[in-house]
Structure formats: C-alpha cells, structure tokens
C-alpha cells in the first residue's frame, strides 16, 4: 500500500491515531490556524441606504471543531476598515437594513441551536441585539417594507426539508428528546410547511398571512399591500420543482397564481412601486441554485418580458428603488448588469474572471457603487465595491495559512475543448508545481445544473495538489453559464453526452502531456458522486474513484429521496417501473461486469437528497464483483461532509484511497 500511512489495506472506523490522519490534520491546521477567530469567508453583502458602510456575513472558526459560524460585520465603504458587530452564540446571518438605515436586522439561532429568529441592532454604535418578534418555527428569510414599519418573514416548520444545496436533512432545532424516539413522516404533519408572516416592528408582534395548505418557499414585497411569492400546494422538497409564481394579498392572505412554467421559477423580487416582478425561469436541479432567464412580470396581467442583454445565465437580482441590478454567469465569468425596466434591457456594468463566494451584487444607485464578493484559485474571499472608477477591496480574509498553501499550486488554466459531437466545452484545470504529465483527478461538479468557476480550491483542493495531483473541473452540457438549451441538454440524458464531454477534456490533457494516461481517477459529490460511480462503469481508463453523497440506483433514489419529482423529470419523465428505462440503464449498481474500479464511497446519515442507502448499494455491488471498495457513512452529516473533525477524517480517507490505487 503506497503512501497511505494507515498501516493496513482495510480502513478502520477510528483512524485518528494513524500517521496519515495526523499528517492531514497537521496540513489543515497549518492552513487554518493562523485564521482561527478571524474571518474564513464572506457572504451576503448589504450596503447601508446612505452607502457609507456595507454589512456582510463573516464566517469564523475557533478550532478544527464544528463548522464556521456566521457573524454580522460592518465594513466602511471608503476602505478604512471593518468590525464584527455580533458574537452569537451559534450563527448570525442575513443582514438587512431598515429603509432609514437606523436599524440592522438579522437572523440568529443564538437562543436555541437551529431555531433561527429575527433580531435587530438599533441606532448608533452597535449594542446588544434585541429579538424583534418570536414566531413558531424557523425564520428563513426576511424583508423590510418601504415605510420601515413592517417586515415580511418566511417561517418554516422545524420538520421542513432543507435544500440539498444547503446540506439536506430537516430544519429541526436541537432538542433533548430521548434518542430512541423514531423519526416520523406524515402527509398531515404541520411542521413540514413554510408560511408567510408579517412582523409589526414597533409592536413586536407577528401574524401569519398565508392560508393553511399553501407552502410559501420565498416572498418579497410587491408595493405595500401585496407580496410576490413562489408557492406550492405541498410542503415537500420535490414540490418546489413545479411551484408557480403567485401574488399574495397581505390583507386577506389569498393568493393569485400569476405564472406557471414547464421548468422552475425562483428568486421572485417585487418592485417597490408594485408595478413589476423580476423572476428567474430556469431548468434547475437544486432549490437555491437557480440560473437562467430573467423575466419581468406584469402583476396585473401576468404577461412576461424577457430581459435582453443579460450575458449568460441570470443568477441573482435585487431592486434598489426603481433600478434592478442583476448578476449572471457568462461562461466562466461573473457579470453584473443594470436593468432598464422600461425597455427590459440589461447594460453590463462589471465583469470578472474571478469566481464569487456568492453571486449577490447589491447596488446603491444614490452613491453609484455595488458591493460583491469574489475569490479565485490564488485569492481567498474578499469583499469589494465596484464603481465607474474601478474596484476597492474592503475586506480580505487572507492570512499566513493561505500564503503557506499557495506554493502547492503550480498553474491554473481556463481550458476549452470540443465534445465528440462538436459542442464547445469549458473547465478549470489546476496542476501542482513541476512538469507533467501528472496523475489527474477528474472532479465533476454537482447539480448537474451548476458550474465550476475559478474559485478558491479550499484546503482539500490544495491538499491534493500538495501530494502531486492535478485536477480537471469540467463544465459539461447541463452546466450553467451557456444558456437554457445548454443546461437542458442533460435532462433525459444524465450520464450520456455529458459523460463524453468530461472524457474529451481528459483526452485533451493527455494529448497535451498534462495528464498521465495511466493515472486517471475521478472524484465528485452529489451528481458528481453519481458520475464518479458511473464513468468508471462506461470507460476503463479510471484507476480509482471517490464517490461522495452519490446516486447509484435511480430506481431506489426515485422512491427513497426527497427529490422524487426531480428524478422523474430528469430521467425523461418515464415511469420508474419501465423495463429497460433509464432508471435502470443509467444506474451504476446495475453495470455488472463493468464494475472494475476501486471505489471509496462516503455519505451522510442525515442526507434526504441522496440517502446513504445509495452509497451502501454501490459498495455492496462492487464487493459482490470482488472489486476493492470502502464505505464511510458519517452519522451527523447530511449532503456532503461539512463539519470538523469529520472533514479531517473524510480528507484522510480520500487521500489514502487515491494513493493506494493511483500513487503520485
């Protein structure tokens, strides 16, 4: 066993005392310890109404334990400095300014872990936060009214399903209930639903607006007496995929469906004057990952006008007065545009090859700047403002640990190649220092409808490069940034032409002498986990595979996951029982003698999107064939491994497995 340091060819449940675990832990500590207590990444920039400062969420980690905790921070817009203004405990997130700028509200679970409520910092220098209202359940989103007297709230029951993009599972707060009590699902469970509420700020009271039997996924003000909302008649995660756009009367609570779609609708934003709703219509594989066509909807008639001039796929937008600011991904570039509502035309304001830590870009028309976040392969997260005069970095999370990682990156290239059918494909390739050919890991993104961009690779990415591995992150058909038709090309053909797109990228790197054809592996999570199990079953080149939170059996995924509606749609709408259908022919577990590649499978026990049984099935299918395989199921994790020290264990197992079968 080459380079594993674990001391045997079989993995043990507890590897903390092995040389490799200690080596990986030391790598993570060297990279992260200089930043303990400081900011690790940035998100959700919110400029104050007067433009003098930008509120944002800064994440901090005190040790290699748990996950980074969100804190509300303020940065001076002139670049003179920043400060942290909340201290938890637990997480603080989603800062929002009152229209007069005197109050900053945010969500926090400081009173009970996982049970987010609404808090406010009022007036002058920040003091102690006050709870605005108390509502049953979890506050997921909030928005101020234009007059500053009321706040719209989306409140989720504690049994409501969480989107897989945010970790899957449910929103349930930590409780002291006995461990033996069962987890129960029922079609009549009240805690499964999301509802719309209004908080009266002065009175400190809240009332529910939406009716029983209506699930409200998201909502914003539409003028002063209505809300623009994405709603459904059922609460489950799968119901979101067919949810229409509706207008909710805030006096009566009654909704009027305004637009339905044969794909998905998300990020509905009502204009302050109530005359328009901006919404994104897109082919989606995940809630919260909505990228496609930006539409302007007439609230009276429901007529839609597509916004022209938005480069690539719209990802995010926000009204600032009567101006609409929109972010998009154009190929591998982030773009921000101003939208003229009268003509439904976008004008590009800013473009960057750097990937965003989020896609939010909030404008302040009165002072002429927008605030956003970004990063790239050599630059960790930073908060910046953009004006006609250029960019100004307000906050950077860079520290000595980042500087210690940079020597492990030899090169990064924006790669372009041609698929077998002639379709142009793009991706990101990173290599360690030195001359190739390198052992290559094909790293397939999740979704499938999402994209790899030039972002900070994280400690795990640098760990792989430090051990001599190059990575290719492709954007095959099904990825965003290339328009709706490109994204929709994966629907009904998962693991088909997109797999050939990926393989063609590997072929190019071999041809150029960057990748060693005898040392090619594959790694990925979620849909990437499916591809990490599927690609070795259709192509013999792979020496090793790491399949993270995968789908391996579309038939059981159809009935056992929270994404039943999505599975059916993306397999072409066929019945799962159809003989010879893609539920069976595109499932890696059914590939029989084609299963030859040593595969490590990982899963989270709390994952409802790709339940751990998917990894278990693949592990057993491989072992029946006599193929080397290992399975690690993390009891406290959901969709992916997100907390320490489980992340160290996960990274160690990945490195050991890759080096065992494809040493660098």
Walk me through the topology:
Layout: H1 19-32, E1 39-47, E2 53-60, E3 69-76, E4 82-84, E5 92-97, E6 103-108, E7 117-122, E8 130-133, E9 138-144, E10 150-156, E11 194-200, E12 205-208, E13 215-222, E14 226-232, E15 245-249, E16 255-259, E17 264-270, E18 277-282, E19 293-297, E20 304-306, E21 313-320, E22 323-330, E23 333-340, E24 345-352, E25 361-364, E26 369-376, E27 379-387, E28 390-396, H2 400-405, E29 411-418, E30 424-431, E31 438-444, H3 458-466, E32 470-475, H4 484-488, H5 497-511, E33 515-525, H6 527-538, E34 542-548, H7 554-560, H8 564-570, H9 582-585, E35 599-604, H10 613-624, E36 629-634, H11 646-661
Parallel strand pairs: 31-32, 31-33, 33-34, 34-35, 35-36
Antiparallel strand pairs: 1-2, 2-3, 3-4, 5-6, 6-7, 7-8, 9-10, 10-11, 11-12, 13-14, 14-15, 15-16, 17-18, 18-19, 19-20, 21-22, 22-23, 23-24, 25-26, 26-27, 27-28, 29-30, 30-32
Helix content: 10-25%
Count of alpha/pi helices: 11
Strand line-up across the major sheet: 29-30-32-31-33-34-35-36
CATH superfamily of the domain at 19-31 and 401-661: Alpha/Beta hydrolase fold, catalytic domain
Give me the CATH fold name of the domain at 19-31 and 401-661: Rossmann fold
Count of extended strands: 36
Strand percentage lies at 35-45%
How large is the radius of gyration?
24 Å
Q: What is the name of the CATH class of the domain at 19-31 and 401-661?
A: Alpha Beta
Shape call:
globular
- Identify the CATH architecture of the domain at 19-31 and 401-661: 3-Layer(aba) Sandwich
Distance between the termini: 13 Å
Biggest β-sheet strands, sense, barrel = 8 strands, mixed
């Amino acid at each position: 066993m080459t380079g594993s340091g674990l001391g045997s060819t079989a993995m043990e449940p507890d590897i903390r005392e092995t040389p490799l675990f200690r080596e990986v832990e030391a790598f993570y500590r060297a990279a992260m310890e200089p930043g303990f207590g400081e900011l690790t990444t940035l998100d959700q920039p919110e400029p104050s109404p007067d433009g003098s400062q930008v509120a944002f969420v800064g994440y901090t980690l005190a040790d290699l334990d748990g996950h980074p905790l969100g804190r509300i921070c303020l940065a001076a817009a002139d670049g003179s400095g920043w400060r942290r203004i909340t201290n938890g405990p637990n997480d603080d997130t989603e800062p929002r300014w009152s229209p007069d700028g005197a109050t900053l509200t945010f969500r926090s679970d400081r009173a009970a872990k996982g049970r987010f409520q609404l808090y406010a910092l009022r007036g002058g220098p920040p003091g102690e936060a006050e709870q605005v209202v108390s509502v049953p359940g979890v506050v997921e989103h909030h928005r101020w009214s234009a007059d500053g007297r009321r706040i719209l709230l989306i409140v989720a029951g504690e049994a409501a399903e969480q989107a897989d993009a945010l970790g899957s599972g449910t929103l349930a707060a930590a409780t002291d209930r006995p461990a033996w009590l069962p987890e129960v699902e029922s079609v009549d469970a009240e805690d499964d639903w999301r509802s719309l509420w209004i908080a009266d700020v002065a009175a400190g009271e809240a009332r529910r607006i939406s009716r029983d039997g209506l699930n409200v996924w998201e909502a914003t003000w539409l003028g002063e007496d209505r809300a623009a909302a994405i709603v459904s008649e059922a609460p489950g995660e799968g119901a979101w995929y067919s949810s229409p756009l509706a207008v909710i009367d805030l006096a009566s609570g009654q909704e009027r469906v305004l637009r339905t779609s044969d794909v998905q609708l998300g990020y509905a934003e009502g204009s302050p004057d109530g005359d328009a709703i901006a919404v994104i219509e897109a082919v989606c594989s995940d809630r919260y990952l909505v990228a496609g066509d930006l539409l302007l909807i007439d609230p009276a008639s429901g007529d839609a006008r597509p916004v022209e001039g938005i480069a690539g796929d719209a990802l995010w937008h926000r009204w600032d007065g009567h101006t609409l600011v929109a972010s998009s991904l154009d190929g591998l570039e982030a773009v921000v545009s101003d939208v003229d509502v009268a003509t439904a035309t976008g004008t590009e304001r800013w473009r960057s090859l750097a990937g965003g830590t989020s896609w939010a870009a909030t404008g302040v028309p009165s002072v002429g700047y927008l605030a956003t976040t970004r990063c790239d392969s050599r630059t960790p997260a930073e908060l910046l403002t953009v004006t006609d005069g250029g960019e100004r970095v307000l906050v950077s999370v860079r520290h000595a640990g980042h500087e210690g990682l940079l020597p492990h990156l030899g090169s990064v290239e924006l790669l372009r190649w041609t698929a077998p059918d002639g379709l142009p494909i793009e991706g990101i390739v990173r290599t360690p220092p030195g001359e190739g050919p390198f052992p290559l890991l094909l790293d397939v993104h999740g979704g499938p409808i999402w994209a790899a961009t030039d972002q900070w690779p994280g400690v795990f990415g640098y760990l792989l490069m430090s051990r001599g591995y190059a990575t290719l992150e492709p954007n095959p058909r099904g990825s965003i940034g290339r328009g709706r038709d490109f994204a929709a090309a994966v629907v009904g053909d998962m693991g088909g032409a997109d797999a050939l797109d990926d393989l063609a990228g590997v072929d190019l790197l071999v041809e150029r002498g960057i990748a060693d054809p005898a040392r090619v592996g594959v790694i990925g999570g979620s849909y990437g986990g499916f591809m990490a199990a599927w690609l070795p079953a259709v192509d013999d080149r792979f020496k090793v595979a790491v399949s993270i939170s995968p789908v391996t059996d579309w038939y059981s995924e159809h009935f056992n996951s929270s994404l039943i509606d999505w599975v059916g749609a993306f397999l072409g709408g066929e019945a799962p029982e159809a003989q010879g259908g893609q539920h069976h022919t595109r499932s890696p577990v059914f590939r029989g003698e084609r299963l030859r590649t040593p595969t490590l499978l990982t899963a989270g026990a709390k994952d409802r999107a790709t339940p751990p049984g998917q990894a278990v099935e693949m592990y057993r299918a491989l072992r029946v064939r006599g193929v080397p395989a290992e399975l690690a199921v993390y009891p406290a994790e959901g969709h992916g491994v997100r907390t320490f020290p489980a992340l160290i264990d996960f990274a160690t197992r990945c490195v050991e497995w890759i080096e065992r079968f494809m040493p660098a």
